[in-house]
């Protein structure tokens, strides 16, 4: 798919002869990235199947330019009892005020409280959901009792330009020109997507990293 970027860029100087043209892929892509000529990076497509808590999906759907989504529907199918419980290495304590805060590890007591309360809430919500379904209440009504920690699944389709913009905001990297402070749960998903991006478009990904992770 790196070559799709090259062809899209060369049409400006070669016209129709850009199809099948030869030349440096690495040099041209790095030039495009460095000087932020972004449109050639839109001429490709990647589709990901995402499984994540609902609160992660809601953050994800804020990315609209260059993205298309289709999510499973709680109106048409009974949702599965899969819920998110943060791992012990998840920072729990917010220190500072909005716009100038950081997260720190919690104590063992705080983790135990979070884990136990979260699991108990999930059990209660799932039982309530099942009671309503067994009573013949429509799925679209019964689902309202389920928390945002419930897992959902969706297809997300994007191009390299929109993906790089997503990664610049949803991953924290010391080499990035512009700092980002993503929520950890969406960052974990973004990191997995970046691995696929690097495999499918290695030249484009390398140029993105070389140019301080600035989306063109």
Describe this structure in words.
Its cofactor is FAD. FAD binds at residues 39, 62-64, 71, 159-161, 165. It comes from Streptomyces pyxinicus. The active site is at residue 170. Pathway: Pyrimidine metabolism; dTTP biosynthesis. Helix 1 crosses helix 2 (25-34), helix 6 (160-170) packs antiparallel against helix 7 and helix 7 packs across helix 8. This protein has 2 domains: 2-45 and 159-210, no CATH class; 47-158, Gyrase A, domain 2 (2-Layer Sandwich). It has 8 helices and 5 strands, in the order ααβαβββααβααα. The chain has 216 residues and is of the alpha+beta class. The chain has helices spanning 2-14, 25-34, 54-60, 108-134, 139-142, 160-170, 184-200, 202-210, and strands at residues 46-53, 67-71, 93-97, 100-104, 151-158. The strands form 2 sheets. Strands 1-5-2 form a 3-stranded antiparallel beta sheet. Strands 3-4 form a two-stranded antiparallel ribbon.
Spell out the key features of this protein.
216 residues, alpha+beta, Gyrase A, domain 2, two-stranded antiparallel sheet
Rough outline: flat
Structural class: alpha+beta
- The appropriate CATH architecture of the largest domain is 2-Layer Sandwich
- Overall pLDDT confidence: 95
DSSP, total strands: 5
**Sequence of secondary-structure elements:** HHEHEEEHHEHHH
Main sheet characteristics: 3 strands, antiparallel
Q: What would the CATH topology of the largest domain be?
A: Gyrase A, domain 2
Radius of gyration (CA) equals 22 Å
> Which percent band covers the strand fraction?
5-15%
Strand order of the largest sheet: 1-5-2
């Amino acid at each position: 798919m790196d070559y799709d970027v090259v062809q899209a860029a060369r049409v400006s100087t070669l016209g129709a002869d850009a199809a099948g043209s030869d030349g440096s892929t690495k040099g041209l892509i790095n030039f495009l990235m460095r000087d932020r000529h972004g449109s050639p990076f839109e001429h490709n497509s990647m589709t990901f199947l995402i499984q994540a808590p609902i609160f992660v999906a809601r953050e994800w759907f804020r990315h609209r330019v260059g993205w298309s989504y289709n999510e499973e529907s709680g109106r048409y199918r009974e949702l599965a009892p899969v819920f998110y419980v943060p791992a012990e290495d998840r920072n729990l304590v917010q220190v500072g005020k909005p716009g100038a805060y950081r997260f720190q590890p919690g104590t063992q007591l705080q983790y135990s409280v979070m884990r136990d309360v979260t699991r108990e809430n999930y059990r209660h919500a799932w039982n309530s959901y099942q009671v309503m379904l067994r009573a013949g209440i429509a799925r679209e009504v019964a689902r309202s009792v389920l928390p945002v920690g419930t897992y959902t699944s969706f297809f997300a389709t994007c191009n390299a330009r929109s993906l790089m913009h997503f990664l610049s905001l949803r991953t924290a990297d010391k080499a990035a020109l512009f700092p980002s402070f993503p929520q950890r749960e969406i960052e974990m998903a973004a990191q997995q997507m970046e691995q696929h991006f690097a495999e499918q478009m290695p030249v484009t990904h390398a140029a993105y990293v070389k140019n301080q992770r600035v989306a063109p």
